[in-house]
Specification:
The protein has 332 residues and is α/β, with parallel strands linked by helices. The protein has 2 domains: 137 residues, Rossmann fold (3-Layer(aba) Sandwich); 185 residues, 2-Layer Sandwich (Dihydrodipicolinate Reductase, domain 2). The chain has 8 helices and 15 strands. The strands form 3 sheets. Strands 3-4-2-1-5-6-7 form a 7-stranded mixed beta sheet, sandwiched between helices. A 6-stranded mixed beta sheet has the order 11-8-12-15-14-13. A two-stranded antiparallel ribbon has the order 9-10. Strand 5, helix 2 and strand 6 form a beta-alpha-beta unit. Helix 1 packs across helix 8.
């Protein structure tokens, strides 16, 4: 029986999961990769010297842990079958969002929600939400969160490899004074040398990612938390930055909160009050830690702090998935 089955292969999250599994010593023979209708005979790298064949999803066998990163329209069908065979499911797609008996989870934030996973399935949030809540994990339980306001600066890999390619090509064309091929944009406007206040399609007044922040933070922390998100795509290739103001239920001091954040697993505090004493997007590329800087008291509310969070979100999300899978499997 496979230890891990990954459903999805042509996305950043699945590739980072495979990289982490190999780095943690999981043998190639214990990992399977599956796709709905793989064209040809695709393979994916597994470490420096191994490759895994991408197999048809309808051939997926029982596995200890099945992780869906793609094919949200097929998750419900296959998850039911796999759980009946004894597999555990982690769903990173939009399938099952909002279902009470399939909890939305971030490791070290709401681990008690495993008790609600009566169907043998858990959801994980969008990578940007994982990074946000992971950074706040050290203060959520201590102070309680009442209100979160944030501005998120999203790199081109929000649209995957195609988004990064478009940023590169548009930058190159602008520098060469060739503006002839800038109109067909994944981001609706040229991203090079620009900032675009839209991340995903519009859902009413919110864009898709703003709606995801609002919805998924509440699914993890509870409906009493108020969330207001503003998202913009910026001309960077990899990484996400978030300026966050949190209002807490209990008294909070920025210096004390900094110490709790430092103790949080997977979080790196880089917060020197000097030029360059903070983490930028180029600093976090390829890193699996969440970087936190600019921790300050927010004097506009009774109990509040503000902070800057930066990270390579797909690596962070992959870490969260594997941490949850370890706990999920231990629970039997």
């Amino acid at each position: 029986m496979l230890k891990y089955a990954i459903v999805g292969y042509n996305d950043a999250l699945s590739r980072n999961i495979l990289t982490l599994l190999e780095a943690r010593g999981v043998l190639a023979r214990d990992v399977g990769v599956f796709a709905a209708k793989p064209q040809g005979q695709p393979k994916v790298s597994y470490g420096e010297s191994s490759e895994l064949s991408v197999l048809p999803l309808d051939t997926i066998p029982q596995a200890e842990m099945v992780i869906f990163t793609d094919y949200e329209n097929m998750v419900a069908h296959y998850a039911k079958k796999l759980v009946a065979q004894g597999s555990k499911i982690i769903n990173a797609t939009s399938a099952f969002w909002g279902e009470e008996d399939i909890p939305m989870m971030v490791g070290m934030v709401n681990d008690d929600a495993f008790a609600k996973a009566v169907k043998g399935i858990i959801n994980v949030p969008h990578p940007e939400v994982v990074m946000l809540l992971g950074a706040l994990s050290g203060v959520i339980g201590k102070y309680g969160v009442k209100n979160i306001r944030l501005s998120a600066y999203i790199s081109a890999d929000f649209e995957g490899q195609d988004g990064m390619s478009e940023l590169y090509n548009h930058t190159r064309r602008i520098l060469m004074n060739d503006m002839s091929s800038l109109e067909n944009s994944l981001f609706h406007k040229p991203l090079a040398f620009n900032i675009i206040p839209q991340a995903g399609s519009f859902i009413g007044e919110e864009t898709e990612l703003e709606w995801i922040y609002n919805t998924q933070v509440k699914q993890v922390l509870g409906d009493d938390v108020k969330v207001h998100a503003n998202c913009a795509i910026v001309p960077a290739f990899i990484g996400v930055g978030q300026y966050v103001n949190i209002e807490t239920i209990n008294d909070i001091d920025a210096d004390e909160a900094r110490e709790y954040i430092k103790k949080s697993k997977g979080v790196m505090v880089v917060d020197r009050q000097e030029d360059g004493g903070h983490a930028s997007l180029t600093d976090v590329q390829g890193e699996s830690s969440i970087f936190v800087s600019r921790i300050r008291q927010d004097m506009t509310v009774e109990n509040g702090i503000s902070l800057w969070i930066a990270g390579d979100v797909y690596k962070i999300a992959a870490q969260n998935i594997l941490a949850l899978s370890k706990q999920f499997l231990k629970r039997g």
